[in-house]
Structure formats: structure tokens, C-alpha cells
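Shape matters. As here.
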Amino acid sequence: MNNPFENALSQLKRATALTSFDEKFLKRIGHPNRQIRVSIPVEMDDGRLNMFEGYRVQFNNARGPYKGGIRFHQDTDIEEVKALAFWMALKCAVVNIPMGGGKGGVTVNPKELSKGELERLSRGWMRAMADVVGPQKDVPAPDVNTTPQIMQWMSDEFGKITGDTSGAVITGKPLEAGGSEGRGTATAQGGFYVFEALRKRLGLPETCTVAIQGFGNAGQFAAKLWHEAGHKVVAVSDSQSAIRNSAGIDILALIEHKRSTRSVADFAGAETFTSDDVLYEPCDLLIPAALENQIHEGNADRIQAKAILELANGPITPEADDILHAKGTPVVPDILANAGGVTVSTFEWEQNLKGEHWGEEAVFERLKQIMEREAVLIADRAKELNTDLRRAAFVVALERIQEAMK
């Protein structure tokens, strides 16, 4: 398996070869400011004590407090968290919001825990990290397998420990606990605004056929948004299986089917096939919305999509990037395409600090302006540097971080 952090450094090297950066800055930006590993004791329902390993990597805070999600996953480790923290620093700079980059996690399969065990683990993570996070220091958020409920437990625990009850320590909370309107759909919504701003430049038709890998939060909302805008979602996968129908899938019915059966398999009116093969579906737009390293050297030449938009973090390895670039398949990179989530998270933080609550329309209006502006700027930069969108996005982000670090 590719080491995600080595992939991130490889992407860094490729991008910084295009234009001149200060040598000391380049040395500095390849290393996180701080890496924290903690042991979290959790009493299980049967009275046993289990120890879990938790992480927080604070990568760079030159542009503002560290910002980034916490993931609960059995394969999570410090290298993955480090890569995600690095990408977060770039992502916040790409959309020009006043935040740095961080990321957290716990090595655990949350599906194996009861609700009580999950709450004790979540509060335990916050107790272990309470002195390194805070509204002006480091502001976590949800990520893979963490929910608004988990964020609420963590926010509540922080308030008990520190007395800070603004809720601004953490974003992605439920609405009634200080969450922002639009946060649930923000990642997919931001990706859709970027797609609309760049569709013609990507050489895509007005009505696209779309394949989506991953049917969690981002994947479901993406399917809904593209479907509602009149595009045809022709294939969808989750971790167990995939379905396809070249005439288009009824997304609302599929969401209901997934909710009741916990799988996309055996959906009426669609053919069920192998989960991984969704990547090779012939379509205009492929949206990877699952995990890292899904498209790699071994399968990149099998991709038949005309363009790719990364809603997941790091779904394409650097080697695959080169293959896709040579094939003429444009990739809208994660640090731009999925930055809607962190942008609306920052709005939530701002609302908590000011004691305000903005309506969904106001939230999306601000999000649309930011995503469209930065997408066009990066596409222009790619043209100017005669490179792909990922390298152009890296250059723009690094220039902004370098400026702040001066």
C-alpha cells in the first residue's frame, strides 16, 4: 500500500519544480509542526478495559488555527493522518480561508462499538487532546466515520474541561448544538460549484453521465446534486458492491434503498457488479468519494471517464496522475474539489465566535463565490504554467502559505 505521506511529498516535489520557492520554506513545509499520539482507555460494556491509539497532527498554522477532521477507521495510522493534515493546510490556502492544516484520528472500527462505547471513546479523545485544541489553536471537525453526534460529545467534553462553551472548538456539530446550516452537504456542494465553474474547460457536455465511487455522506449528496441538476448518474458503489444503469439511476430511491438495506446492491432497475469496477465505467465524469489510493499505477490506464473530480482525499496516486495527464484526462484535485467542507466549517467557527446563526441560503451564497473564484484562478494558473490542475492548486496554496510565513 502506498504511504499517503510519501505521496503528499511526491506531489509537493512535482508542483514546486514548476516555479521558484524559497529553499528554507520548502524544507519547512515538508514537516509538520507537531505530531501527537495518545492512548485512550475505554471501558467496554462488558467491563473490560480496551486501549485505543489516537492522533492529532498539527501541520502548519501560518494562516490561522489548525483545522481538520478526525477519522475513526481501523486502518488509520500516523502516516495517513500526517498526509491528511498536510493536504488540509494546502486546502485552506487554496480557498483562501484564515485556517491552517491539521488532522486527527483513532485506530478503531467504530461499527464494532456500541453507542455508549463510541461516546466514551469520543470523550476520551477530547480529554487526551484538550490542552492542544481550542477555538484559537486547533479546530477539529468530522471525517470518515465521525458524525455530528460525535462532534457534540467532543465539544461538550471540551466545555467541561475548559469552561469554554462557545462551541467554536469543533465544527460539524448538530444544528441545535451550534452547527452551521448546509454543513452536511457542503463538501459535495462545493465540489458541484467547482464542476460548474470548470465544466467547459474540462471539455464536458452540458448534460454529463456520472459515476460515483463511495456512497457515504459526500457520495450520496454528490449523487443527489448532479442528479437534481439534470445530469445522469449511471453507476454508484459503496464498500461492498456497485450498481449501474446506462439510462440513469433514480438517486432518491437509491438513498432510501441504502438506508433500509445498508447496501446499494440489488437495487431494482440496476445491475449489481463488483465494487472496485465502478472506477472503470465509461462516463463523462468520475467522482471518487471513498478513500485514498483508489486509482494507482496498476489501474489508471483502465479509467474511461473523460474527467475526474476528487471528492475523497488523495484517491489518485502521483504515478496515476502522470498516466491520466498523458492520456489527456483532466483531474480536479481534492484540495480544490472537496474544500467546500472546510469552508463551511470555517463559517461555523465564525458563527460560534460571534454568537450568530446564518441561514442556508447565505451560507451557500458565500460558498459559491469562494469555490467559483478559486476554481477559475487555479484553472488560469494551470494554463499559465502549462500544467495540470493539481500542480497549479499546489503552487497557489504554497505561495499563500509562504507569504504568511514571511
About this structure: Residues 186-337 form a domain with the Rossmann fold fold (CATH 3.40.50.720).
